Amino acid sequence: MPRLNIAIPAPRFWVGLTCALLAAVALFATYDLTRRSALDDLKREARVTAQLRVAVLQSELDKQRAVPVILADDSDVVAALRAPDPARFIRISQKLERLRQETRGAVIYLIDDKGVAVAASNWALPVSFVGENYGFRPYFRQAMTGVVAEQFALGTVSHKPGLYMAHSVSDDGKAIGVVVVKMEFDAIEASWAQSPQLTYVTDRAGKVVLTARQDLRFQSQPPVRTDEFVTPVAVPVDGWQLQVVSSARPALDMARNAILMLALALGLTSMLIIWQWRRVRLRQAQGAILAAREAEYRQRLEGDVEARTREISITNARLSAEIHDRRDAERRLSSLQADLVQANKLASLGQITAGVAHEINQPVATIRILADTSVKMLGVAKARAMLSDNLDKIIRMCERIGHITGELRTFSRKATGEVEPVPLQDTVMSSILLNQSRLHENRVALICDPIDPVLKVMAGRIRLEQVLVNLLQNAFEALEATPNPTVSLTVEVTDDWVTLKVIDNGPGLKPEVLDQLFTPFVTTKPKGLGLGLVIAHDILRDFGGDLSAESTDAGASFILRLKVAS
Q: Are the beta carbons of 552 and 505 closer than 8 angstroms?
């Protein structure tokens, strides 16, 4: 039988094949891990963006939803529907016009039980709704039977899309009409148009209702490309969902750059190994004859290494620039958060400035009278004792002015963010002094427990004053309609904690308000932003303490827990 000759690959073939497989696995793993990590970062950023846009949208919705609820209980509105009269409807229209200007809504109108608009905020315009029949509108029929209703639709007169918020007007338990507020989203959609990310809102049926692109409105949700991803967040409207479409291209580019760098590194390593191996082989086989060729080859290879090294340096420089940009963005975010705290403090400062001015005017007037009297008495020989008394009073009045302005200047100074031992008595007294005018103006009785002058807590003096000023102002505002208004400050000290309570005898807090008291943009004030208590809560948390609230029929209590400074 003839002998079969089977060629067996050399060992270095298997070594090369193994290295190639390991390199391929390393490249694939690097690409996949880099892409996943970068994509996760993009998704987190998109989630934050979507939540912020929903927060802005919810703030506007809550503001507009309050309007029909308030108007439905308005005595003038109920009286006008109960006894229809053209002159009375004109007065209602004028009231709706003023309210629309204050709330910046699209239009507010009143419909009787037959579906006819009898008053509207646009009553004086050519496109007035007065006299139009809206009985066919679903929001009218639903409100007449179910108190409240909402519908997103095109306006029959304006032909502009908007959200109609309706609330029935009842008389002795019977619906006699409906108050409707139309909210348009032009400003919000315009802000979305400035972003590179496509943002839109879909309804329960998946149709686009809010968008900066008019070609998508009332269409099905647009398809998403393979290099994009969608971040959905629920909107506080039945069945609505906000969608933010973001590009995944940055993650793919970063992954491609990572494997490019790794490939360059592996290529350089392989070339160096091959070069060294060939160098040894050439020395063994050819010796001195191949020295010149080897030098030429080495020179060419070193040039390749230098070129690829420059490419790697350029790539590293780009990555360093991206890292620097991201850190710069984080610093700007931190600065914006600090500025938000300062803005809230300056807003409180604006409210107490008028009171401080009143406190200063009184000693200034006294100083003027005493000075005029002293000038007239300079020529009287026996008036030396009276002159000395007047000068002593002037000195005390100047010290009082300096104390007031010093506290005001300290309060307005931007906080450093440091936590250190702070005298609790000085901080509480300063906060009361800054609110002294509000106490006199509202005739509030302030009762404060005695505080040990040596008691110190871990906090920041300026930020703790900001919290106390904010809580005292809230308490004074809650007592505006309360007879015999009283605010109490109680202090309880244990081994490690100080509990300071701000208690008022006002109407207290409703359960639904108490549950969301420290949620951003939630407020019961008509012109409030819903950030004061949120910032106060965060400040106490930075101190290592806590801020909470309680409410009973006898009033509301805000409880500050601070660590005792050792």
A: no
CA distances from 96 to 81, 121, 158 (A): 15, 5, 18
Give residue 468's identity as a one-letter amino acid code.
Answer: L
Give the pLDDT of residue 354.
47
Could you read off the pLDDT of 217-243 as tens digits, one per residue? 888 888 888 888 899 999 888 889 999
Task: Specify which residues 245 forms β-bridges with.
Answer: 198, 230
pLDDT computed for residue 5 by the predictor: 59
Q: Which two tokens stand for residue 84?
A: 């229809």
Backbone angles phi, psi at 510, to 5 degrees: -70, 150
Whether residue 90 contacts residue 198, with contact meaning beta carbons closer than 8 Å, is answered with no
3-class DSSP state of 229: strand
Comparing CA positions, the residue from 155, 176, 175 lying closest to residue 164 is 155
Q: Which of 430, 495, 433 is nearest to 463 (CA)?
A: 430
Residue 119 host element (H or E) = strand 117-120
Q: 181 - beta bridge partners? A: 108, 165
* Residues belonging to the chain: 566
Q: Cα separation of 17 and 385, whole Å?
A: 110
Helix or strand (DSSP H, E) at 437: helix 436-442
Per-residue b or e along 525-541, where b marks 16 or more CB atoms closer than 10 Å to that residue's CB: eeeeebbbbbbbbbbbe
Nearest of 166, 168, 159, 170 to residue 181 by alpha carbon: 166
Q: Dihedral, CA atoms, 420, 423, 429, 433, nearest 10 degrees?
A: -40
218-225 long-range Cβ contacts below 8 angstroms, 24+ apart: 218/161, 222/198
CA quadruple 148, 152, 157, 158: dihedral positive or negative?
positive
CA distance 221 to 243: 9
Task: Locate 214 and state its tokens.
Answer: 């008019």
Compute φ and ψ for 124, nearest 5 degrees. Answer: -95, 5
User: Could you tell me if 203 and 209 are in contact, meaning their C-beta atoms sit under 8 angstroms apart?
Assistant: yes
- Tens digits of per-residue pLDDT, 520-546? 766 767 655 567 788 888 889 999 999
User: In angstroms, what CA-CA distances link 460 with 406, 431, 435, 518?
Assistant: 17, 14, 20, 21
- Which structure tokens are listed for 345? 């403090």
pLDDT (0 to 100) of residue 368 = 62
Residue 504 · residue 487 · CB < 8 Å: yes
Distances (CA, A) of 311 to 19, 30, 561: 24, 19, 58
* Residues ≥6 apart with Cβ < 8 Å to 358: 437
Residue 549 is classified by DSSP as: E
Comparing 226 with 401, the larger pLDDT belongs to: 226
532, 549 Cβ separation under 8 angstroms: no
